[in-house]
Amino acid sequence: MQAERSSHPQPPPDPSAPEQAIFRHSFSADPLSVRAALHSTLARFIRQMTTDEAGALEIVLAEVFNNIVRHGYGNSGKGTISLALARDRRGLTCLVCDDGIELPERCLSGIGGDHPRPVPDTLPEGGFGWFLIRDLVEDLHYCRHDGRNELVFRLPLAPLALAQ
Predict the structure, then answer these.
(1) In a domain, 29, yes or no
(2) Tens of pLDDT along the chain (164 residues)?
(3) Which of 97, 95, 99 shows the shortest CA–CA distance to 147?
(4) What is the pairing mode between strands 22-28 and 138-145?
(5) Is residue 121 part of a domain?
(6) pTM of the model
(7) Based on the structure, what is the number of domains in the chain?
(8) The domain that contains 31 carries what CATH number?
(9) What is the domain extent for residue 105?
């Protein structure tokens, strides 16, 4: 899912056009691209969630993306992160993929089970980010397939009528 790049400015989206069922976005694994991806993702879904839900989405995606940039690609600025999101009655399902190094097992501890609230002073550098991710999302799953990392999770959201 490589994003197309053009030297021509894109026309603004037509507000009367129906929104896509699945939002897809691929971007370079560097801090400025992560910031832009967070902005465009929040802009796409802001009308479908509460302020608190938007904040949770931003925290989770920022933690995931920054971990990929920093650890998956070693701050090289090389590589691509792909994001796909879909809104349904249960929330926002997210798929994040990259070709960086495999996610270490210690990051995955607690996935699928009870995870006690950690004491921040006892966590290794970066450990609190994974706690936040696990605390804010549901159905968190990770796999490595053909040299590609795939992280899937669902952010629970209020029904659309309540979010608006």
Answers:
(1) yes
(2) 333 333 444 445 444 444 457 999 999 999 999 999 999 999 999 988 999 999 999 999 999 999 999 999 998 889 999 999 999 888 999 999 999 999 888 776 655 455 555 555 555 555 678 888 999 999 999 999 999 999 999 999 988 755 55
(3) 99
(4) unpaired
(5) no
(6) 0.77
(7) 1
(8) 3.30.565.10
(9) 22-109+127-163
Q: Is 118:131 a contact under the CB 8 Å cutoff?
A: yes
* Sheet-wide strand order for 138-145: 22-28, 80-88, 91-98, 148-156, 138-145
Nearest to 140 by CA among 117, 112, 114: 112
**77 in a structural domain:** yes
- Would 154 be classed as within a structural domain? yes
Using a 10 angstrom Cβ sphere, with 0-12 exposed, 13-18 middle and 19 or more buried, the burial of residue 98 is buried
